[in-house]
Amino acid sequence: MLTVRNLSKVFPPDNQVLSQISFQVDAGEFIAVIGSSGSGKTTLLRCISHQEKWTSGQLIYNSIDITKPGPWDRFKLGKDFAYLEEKPFLNRNKSAVKNVLMGRVYQAPLRMVTGLSSRNEKIDSMDFLEKVGLLDKGEKKVGQLSGGEQQRVAIAKALILGPKVLVADEPVSGLDPKSTEYILQDLKSLCKERHMSVIATLHKVELAERFATRIWGVSEGRIVLDIPARPLTLNEKMLVFGQI
Ligand SMILES: Nc1ncnc2c1ncn2[C@@H]1O[C@H](COP(=O)(O)OP(=O)(O)OP(=O)(O)O)[C@@H](O)[C@H]1O
């Protein structure tokens, strides 16, 4: 479904952050990306989701080369790829339902500007909030929700366009164990039930081992480990993190 060949990224003037990365992602995979701070995980995710320009390499999505997307490809990418930043932008003064609807900006830009939404759109938005266990908080202002709840609103917002690929940078960083469990379980179910692919950085190895279907270990801008998810051996941890 998604193929990357020889992705390299150099930040000017000469900071080579990713080197010759290649991989293939199938529908329904939940890939956890682990690695030390500064190894290039965020840059990799930003490149995959076209948040960052590639220095070289090729990106093929469903047999189409989208390395340098034109306007139509960009529109399609906006629908099929969702990028969830570590600190996603949410409007704290608007309700959870309204925030989720803002994820529809591609489909109804004018309505999003005017702030009006139809009854059906509201129901759609509530459906997605229900999926992340937040239906009862739909009318609350986002600023009044906990960090974990806000993250779940951001996930619902990312999901409302029905993406095929969700790229998430540290979706559970700073969250308590219960919210962490809830969100990762959610993502896992979405992969299984909707055949969505998730590529997410996770700072704790045991979370990657428990929830993902595949683990990538990134070190110095390369994927040095690519295995079906299972408990890592000490050698594998050393390969990814160096001396531990
Ligand atoms: N916009 C940028 N301009 C220049 N250098 C950058 C830029 N973004 C990232 N880098 C550099 O790329 C390297 C990798 O950063 P990246 O954020 O991808 O690492 P990471 O593995 O996600 O780290 P962390 O776990 O701490 O978030 C770092 O040395 C960083 O300074």
From TrEMBL:
Pfam families membership:
ABC_tran
Q: Name one GO molecular function term.
A: ATP binding
Q: What transmembrane ranges does the database entry give?
A: none
The ABC transporter domain is annotated at 2-242
Record's keyword terms, sorted: ATP-binding, Cell membrane, Membrane, Nucleotide-binding, Translocase, Transport
Report which residue ranges the record marks as coiled coil: none
Q: Which InterPro entries match?
A: AAA+_ATPase, ABC_transporter-like_ATP-bd, ABC_transporter-like_CS, MetN_ABC_transporter-like, P-loop_NTPase
Xref: SMART domains: AAA (SM00382)
Q: What is this protein called?
A: Glutamine transport ATP-binding protein GlnQ
